[in-house]
Amino acid sequence: MSRIIYFDDLTVGQRFVSEPEVVTEESIIRFARDADPQYFHIDPFTATESVFGGLIASGWQTAAATVRHLLERCGVIFAGGVVGVDATVSWKRPVRPGDRLHVEGEITSLRLSASRPERGFATFDSKTLDGAGRVVQTLQATMMINRDSSRRESPPAG
Amino acid sequence: MSRIIYFDDLTVGQRFVSEPEVVTEESIIRFARDADPQYFHIDPFTATESVFGGLIASGWQTAAATVRHLLERCGVIFAGGVVGVDATVSWKRPVRPGDRLHVEGEITSLRLSASRPERGFATFDSKTLDGAGRVVQTLQATMMINRDSSRRESPPAG
């Protein structure tokens, strides 16, 4: 069951673990055709000649999927959506068709917005793991999230 | 005219400036539908109710476009493609339909791979600017790039 999360509901140390999702060849090619059309992301045949020996997902696909996992596959809905402020991403292993990925993350910092009292900033540290438990990516992202107007007078949790 | 670039051709301080590209509503929605399906990236009507007052591009679209600009819109071809190792991105302003973006970047660091003598690591510091010259994103990425086998005995440029 999903529940709506406001900035006020977040606490430092709070963990999110997503349901796994299988990466398909079709989704790799569809993402990369426009966004990152290098041959080892879009052509399964010539990709065999690459350093990877086959098709791999664009790193940007795995990065974007991190926040999507948080939003869609952790049973939570963030009020007003999630707006990225900055991110640091490290790609550890190639992601291939058939890989079953999930995201494990934790809120590591919370602060109110000085200019926008209706929003706050949350920093989320995550690992994306494959079906064998190997880390394929680490990502730290700072995101802007709505506060609950009914609780705005009280200090935020965390 | 395009020219093939090997790791050996890169020098610290080398600059790349891309031809501008106009971001369309259609490209914003197409990218976000799968990769980052938040309402302010995929629905021009409900997006008017968001903090942005209208449709904006996913930050991951602008991030991915940085490397694509480098590869497709600077008149260079990187031998063997470009493989992302890590990246730090900061989103400064929303990107809206009709924005005309270009990328200005510089090689800030070069080092050989210890484990793969046929490749090297290049760090690329970039700004993405809109038609009014405002910075919409900064991105620093470290990428793995092929060396030229015929020059492998000599030290790399830079």
Question: Care to describe what's here?
Answer:
- Two copies of one chain form a homodimer.
- The first copy, chain A, has helices spanning 25-35, 39-42, 59-72; strands at 3-5, 15-17, 21-22, 76-78, 83-91, 100-112, 119-129, 135-146.
- In chain A, strands 2, 3, 5, 6, 7 and 8 form a six-stranded antiparallel sheet that branches.
- The mean pLDDT of chain A is 91.
- The longest helix of chain A is centred in the middle third of the chain and has 14 residues, at 59-72.
- The two termini of chain A are 24 Å apart.
- In chain A, a hairpin with a 6-residue loop joins strand 6 and strand 7 (119-129).
- The first copy, chain A, is elongated, with a radius of gyration of 18 Å.
- Chain A has a single domain (3-151), classed as Hotdog Thioesterase (Thiol Ester Dehydrase, Chain A).
- Chain A is 18% helix and 35% strand.
- With 158 residues, chain A is α+β, with helices and mostly antiparallel strands.
- Chain A contains three helices and eight strands, in the order E-E-E-H-H-H-E-E-E-E-E.
- The interface between A and B is large, with 36 and 36 residues.
- Strand 5 (83-91) of chain A pairs antiparallel with strand 5 of chain B.
